[in-house]
């Protein structure tokens, strides 16, 4: 099956800093999603982005399907951005998740 | 609420017991998925329903795990003869159809003592 690799595994930022999270996958995919898992475990949808670029407030994402990667960009980070960010791709019917990037934003 | 709901939120059981976990998908979503998340890892796929039928159950770890969706809406994940290794958060997701955006419930944290 498809392998999904996320980098970096851990990231510590000062409030106000910008960051880029990376997701690489090993084969072509039908769709790709980015999630933020909050400290209570809820997976919050950030982007549904099989290809192209989308922006939502301080967050933006780009997927280049032909190069098998996606990036999540967080600008002007806030402490509430802390948590684990997952990239997930659909391989046939099932969604395969990366191991996540744990982001800590310090005040 | 319009989101995916799961009950119970927490379940503690003893080794060898039977448990049922329930998922209520978003109204109108035909696709429903179950995942399992262990501590420090990403969710892992268990089973996918399209309507009432299990279209892909390749992620179920063994025959102690079974899931149903008899009317194409609510789904129940059933685990027989629970083992300590079954302890995890069980997540349910739904989507308008196959290969559409998936929306997740809050999960059921299962602890097997």
Helix and strand arrangement:
The complex is a heterodimer of chains A (107) and B (113).
Chain A: E1 4-7, E2 10-14, E3 19-25, E4 32-37, E5 43-48, E6 52-56, E7 59-64, E8 69-74, E9 83-91, E10 94-97, E11 101-106
Parallel strand pairs in A: 2-11
Antiparallel strand pairs in A: 1-3, 3-8, 4-5, 4-9, 6-7, 7-8, 9-10, 9-11
Chain B: E1 5-7, E2 10-13, E3 19-24, E4 31-37, E5 44-50, E6 53-56, E7 65-68, E8 75-79, E9 88-95, E10 103-104, E11 108-112
Task: Write the H/E string of chain A, N to C.
Answer: EEEEEEEEEEE
Distance linking N and C termini of chain B: 33 Å
Summing up helix and strand content along with how strands pair, one would put the structural category of chain B as mainly beta
Chain-averaged pLDDT of chain A: 94
Helix share, percent of chain A: under 10%
Strand content of chain A: over 45%
Largest interface pair: A-B, 22 and 26 residues
The name of the CATH architecture of chain A is: Sandwich
Which overall shape of chain A is indicated by the principal axes computed on the Cα atoms? globular
CATH topology of chain B: Immunoglobulin-like
- Structural domains of chain B: how many: 1
Low-pLDDT stretches of chain B are: none
Note the total helix count of chain A. Answer: 0
- Largest sheet data of chain A: 6 strands, mixed
């Amino acid at each position: 099956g498809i392998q999904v690799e996320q980098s970096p595994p851990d990231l510590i930022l000062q409030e106000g800093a910008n960051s880029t999270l990376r997701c690489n996958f090993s084969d072509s995919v039908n769709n790709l999603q980015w999630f933020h898992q909050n400290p209570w475990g809820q997976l919050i949808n950030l982007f549904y982005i099989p290809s192209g670029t989308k922006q939502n407030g301080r967050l933006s994402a780009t997927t280049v399907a032909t190069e098998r990667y996606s990036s999540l960009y967080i600008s002007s980070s806030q402490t509430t951005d802390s948590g684990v960010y997952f990239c997930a791709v659909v391989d046939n019917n099932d969604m395969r998740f990366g191991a996540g990037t744990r982001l800590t934003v310090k005040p | 609420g319009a989101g995916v709901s799961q009950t119970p939120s927490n379940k503690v059981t003893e080794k060898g017991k039977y448990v049922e976990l329930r998922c209520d998908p978003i109204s109108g979503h035909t696709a429903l998925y179950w995942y399992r998340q262990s501590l420090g890892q990403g969710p892992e796929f268990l089973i996918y329903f399209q309507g009432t039928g299990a279209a892909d159950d390749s992620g179920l770890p063994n025959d102690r795990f079974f899931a149903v969706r008899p009317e194409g809406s609510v789904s129940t994940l059933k685990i027989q003869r629970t083992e300590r290794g079954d302890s995890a958060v069980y997540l349910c997701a739904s989507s308008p159809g196959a290969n559409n955006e998936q929306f997740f419930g809050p999960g059921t944290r299962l602890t097997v003592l």
